[in-house]
Amino acid sequence: MHATLPLLKSSDFPAIRRRRLDTLQVNLGYRCNQSCVHCHVNAGPTRTEEMTLQTAETVIDFVRSSNIALLDVTGGAPELNANFRFLVATVRALGVRVMDRCNLTILEHPGQEDLAEFLAAQRVEITASLPCYLEENVDRQRGNGVFDSSIRGLQRLNALGYGQPGSDLPLNLVFNPQGPVLPPAQAGLEQAYRDELGARYGIVFTRLLTLTNMPIKRFGSTLVSKGEFVPYMRLLRSSFRSENLDSVMCRSLISVDWQGWVYDCDFNQMLGIPLALRERARIRLTDLMATDVETNPIAVLDHCYGCTAGQGSSCSGALSS
């Protein structure tokens, strides 16, 4: 595995500061039932990192004592964490929105047979990975059989009301490019997804989110191996659009890892770049209970060009048309 952090450290990315915090993104661990080539977490079946019940309870305490509007739950496959359902049910009981970043195949994983029904009963929003509407492309990026399992998962979610017109159960799909290129225009690709998935499989969904692949961890290492890292970074930098700085996700979000350490975003978490809070090197979520992070500087390096290139990229998809 090639480390990309040393290749990102010399940066002229513009300085930015956080606005009001409204989203807490929590990584429950790096274990996953898939191993995807583009994964910026290096997640996979052999990873053992997992958030403990004590740390999950700290997350709940933070949500309870703050003005957080959304708990964004991710992984790995977050549903594999033993405390996932406890965390979700408790936060939903507080009246806070919960989003599950789901890879769809987890719905067929042994022991998760009732997961879809649990998510629907808790009115959990689902953001589901589906990097293409063609079987060949999905299986090339995610593994044989992933596409068929994903389609079955989407059909099952649709049957529970997810993604249906007028439903209060949002079902968003996520597109990642196959290689070191920027995603196509989100609106046009969303229509293609609707046409293809609807005609072939009767699937409906709420929105399509296009994400730019980040030059870190597994994807970054692949770029280095193929001699594509420098050209990809050149593409990201040359495609920079300053208007995207206004709505990058780190302006209103903080990211918490499986041990409770806090970061400015999920990508900084994977690079080990701690939350930029005054002069403290690292900080846990417990230390933020009575701390206002609004107006704090955000730690930036060259990978941040991935969020601001072209139409922009964030946890909620493109930032501009």
Account of the protein in words:
By secondary structure, the protein is α/β, with parallel strands linked by helices. It has one domain: Aldolase class I (TIM Barrel), CATH 3.20.20.70. It is built from eleven helices and eight strands. The protein has helices at 5-8, 53-65, 84-93, 115-121, 135-142, 146-159, 186-201, 217-225, 229-238, 266-271, 305-308, and strands spanning 23-27, 70-74, 97-102, 125-129, 171-175, 207-210, 253-256, 262-263. Strands 6-5-4-3-2-1-7-8 form an eight-stranded mixed sheet.
Give the key terms.
alpha/beta; 11 helices; 8 strands; 321 residues; eight-stranded mixed sheet; TIM Barrel
Strand content: 5-15%
Strand order, sheet with most strands? 6-5-4-3-2-1-7-8
Straight-line N-to-C gap = 35 Å
Q: Regions with pLDDT < 50 over 5+ consecutive residues?
A: none
Rg is 19 Å
Q: How many β-strand runs?
A: 8
The level of helicity is 25-40%
Brief summary:
This protein is α/β, with parallel strands linked by helices and 321 residues long. It has eleven helices and eight strands.
List the helices and strands and how they pair.
Elements (H helix, E strand, L loop, with lengths): L4 H4 L14 E5 L25 H13 L4 E5 L9 H10 L3 E6 L12 H7 L3 E5 L5 H8 L3 H14 L11 E5 L10 H16 L5 E4 L6 H9 L3 H10 L14 E4 L5 E2 L2 H6 L33 H4 L13
